Amino acid sequence: MLRKLSLFVIALVLIGGSALAFAWWDNLTVEEEETITIGEGVTLEVLAVAEVPEGKALVPAGVILKADDVDEVELTYNVKLDTEVPEALDLDVVSSNIEIGGDATYAGLVNIDISLAESTVNDVDVLVTVTVTLDEPADQTEYDAIVNQDITFTLTFTASESE
Asked: What is the distance between the alpha carbons of residues 45 and 119, in angstroms, rounded to a whole number?
């Protein structure tokens, strides 16, 4: 009897351990989607982070670049509608809520240029390129506040009928 009970407990532990191991492993394989799909007449907001390449530093536009400096960060998005519509919809992308290091005090130093490959969207991907640059700070205080800080902002994608 004790032997049957111990075999049952061992089997239960093995099955439970396998299930836990699979759940843990399944959590490790998270994929990021590069295509943004929006519905007809829908607005979608995406939190964007201007990530500087590893080992590089974003510096204001127009300054002399050193070996590890970049003066812009480029983000790209593929946008398409999630359903077919008779006529393509106007695509509008705007940025808002700009912060440097979690603070909006010096957000005016950040320039966000949004370029659309097409002005309308349907069931085919439209490439949206977002270029982030910095203006030169006015003084050392501004520079110290923004140096090596993350730049975050919200991108709002809207598909709507022509007016």
From this structure: 18
Indicate the range of 25-29, 33-37, 110-114 predicted with least confidence. Answer: 25-29
Per the CB < 8 A criterion, the answer to whether 132 and 94 are in contact is: no
Nearest to 37 by CA among 143, 123, 107, 108: 123
- Spatial separation of the C-alpha atoms in residues 111 and 87, rounded to whole Å: 33
End-to-end distance of the chain based on CA atoms, in angstroms? Answer: 80
Q: Where are the beta strands (DSSP E) in the chain?
A: 35-38, 43-50, 57-58, 69-70, 73-81, 89-100, 110-116, 120-121, 126-134, 151-160
Cβ pair 9, 17 in contact under 8 A: no
Across 157-162, average pLDDT: 84
pTM: 0.71
How would residue 31 be classed by pLDDT, with cut points 50, 70 and 90? Answer: very low
Dihedral over alpha carbons 118, 120, 125, 130 (to 10 degrees)? 50
C-alpha distances (whole Å) from 120 to each of 8, 92, 114, 127, 155 are 63, 8, 14, 11, 17
